[in-house]
Design brief:
Blueprint (H helix, E strand, L loop, with lengths): L1 H8 L9 H4 L4 H7 L7 H15 L4 H10 L4 H11 L3 H11 L3
Length: 101
């Protein structure tokens, strides 16, 4: 469950604004950029805080998430690497050596 929450929360679990942030000059930006389709920004942050309380710690878990997402979203990176990898030579070899009639 902890890993699932960490994967779903991603970097959103690392930088969660405080109530003080919502009462500051950046309130407009927080309200706009932290909202979701079904939740306003404050309610969404409350869910992230609940997830944080469930599956994170001040250092250890934060470090795990940092390392997991340092280069970006791992799924997207894997997809990009797959897309740019030169496969033609290997596919031709497989067809020649293993898929002959």
């Amino acid at each position: 469950m902890i890993e699932i929450l960490q994967l779903l929360g991603a970097s959103g679990l690392i930088s969660i604004p405080t109530e003080k942030d919502f009462n500051s000059d950046i309130n407009k930006e927080l309200t706009q950029y932290l909202q979701s389709f079904t939740k306003n920004a404050k309610d969404r942050v409350k869910l992230f805080r609940l997830a944080w309380d469930t599956c994170m710690s001040a250092f250890g878990s934060r470090q795990v998430l940092y390392e997991r997402y340092f280069f970006g979203d791992p799924v997207r990176l894997s997809d990009d690497l797959y897309g740019i990898y030169e496969r033609k030579k290997l596919m031709d070899r497989i067809e020649k050596d293993f898929l002959r009639d």
